[in-house]
Write a structure and sequence with these properties.
The protein is mainly alpha-helical. It is built from four helices and no strands. Helix 1 runs antiparallel to helix 2. The longest helix has 17 residues. It starts with a helix and ends with a helix.
């Protein structure tokens, strides 16, 4: 079940990536709901995803501050 939530989260983030504010809002919700190891996977995915979408790079600071 948790894997399904992680995959759903990625799907939602991809769909809202056209709007930085909406992306940040969804990212904050995701970090609250995911397990710590899933947040780590999401962080790795975000690094990859933001390389393709540089306008979203400021959102990385939200998941990096958990370290």
């Amino acid at each position: 079940m948790p894997r399904m939530i992680y995959d759903y989260t990625k799907s939602v983030l991809e769909k809202v990536s056209f709007d930085v504010e909406l992306f940040m809002k969804e990212l904050k919700k995701a970090v609250k709901k995911l397990l710590p190891y899933e947040v780590e996977h999401l962080r790795n995915w975000l690094i990859y995803f933001t390389n393709k979408n540089p306008q979203l790079k400021p959102c990385l600071c939200y998941v990096m501050e958990d370290e």
